[in-house]
């Protein structure tokens, strides 16, 4: 994959790509000011890759982590979501989010 861009003034950049794409262009002052978030297992690859290695702030994140799902207990007793965050009428086999908690249904 190849990207072409000219960026300035960005504060946060997220990439879910575990392999640093070839990047043509310039991030301008973004290298010093922005934080580049990459998959946790790819931090060293981005630190070594052309264009990406110039970022002063590279941090890893868990691409499979589920955060900030809140069930409104006052409106409905049981609330179900699938792993992609889609609301369900009932739990399905596999990983579900039930009332804001991850649960495996067999």
Give the topology.
Layout: E1 2-6, E2 12-14, E3 22-26, H1 30-33, E4 35-39, H2 43-48, E5 57-61, E6 80-82, E7 87-88, E8 94-98, E9 101-105
Parallel strand pairs: 1-3, 2-4, 4-5
Antiparallel strand pairs: 6-7, 6-8, 8-9
Quick synopsis:
This protein is mainly beta and 106 residues long. Helices cover 9% and strands 36% of the residues.
Describe the structure.
The chain is mostly beta strands and 106 residues long. The protein has 2 domains: 2-61, no CATH class; 66-106, no CATH class. It is 9% helix and 36% strand. The protein contains 2 helices and 9 strands, in the order E-E-E-H-E-H-E-E-E-E-E. The chain has helices at residues 30-33, 43-48, and strands spanning 2-6, 12-14, 22-26, 35-39, 57-61, 80-82, 87-88, 94-98, 101-105. The strands form 3 sheets. It has a 4-stranded antiparallel sheet, with no helix packed on it. The chain is elongated and about 50 Å long. The chain starts with a strand and ends with a strand. The model has no long low-confidence stretch (mean pLDDT 81).
Please, how many domains? Answer: 2
The major beta sheet can be summarized as: 4 strands, antiparallel
Strand content: 35-45%
Outline the low-pLDDT stretches.
none
Number of strands: 9
Straight-line N-to-C gap: 39 Å
| Helix residue percentage | under 10%
Mean pLDDT: 81
Pattern of helices and strands: EEEHEHEEEEE
The best one-word shape is elongated
Strand neighbour order, sheet with most strands: 7-6-8-9
What is the C-alpha radius of gyration, as a whole number of Å? 19 Å
Number of helices: 2
Helix/strand structural class: mainly beta
């Amino acid at each position: 994959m190849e990207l072409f861009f000219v960026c300035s003034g960005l504060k946060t950049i997220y990439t879910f790509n575990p392999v640093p794409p070839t990047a043509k262009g310039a991030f301008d002052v973004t290298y010093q000011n922005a934080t580049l978030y990459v998959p946790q297992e790819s931090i060293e690859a981005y630190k070594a890759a052309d264009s990406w290695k110039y970022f002063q702030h590279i941090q890893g994140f868990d691409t499979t982590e589920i955060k900030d799902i809140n069930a409104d207990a006052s409106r409905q007793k049981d609330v179900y979501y699938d792993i992609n965050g889609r609301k369900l009428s009932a739990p399905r086999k596999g990983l579900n989010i039930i009332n804001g908690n991850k649960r495996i249904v067999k």
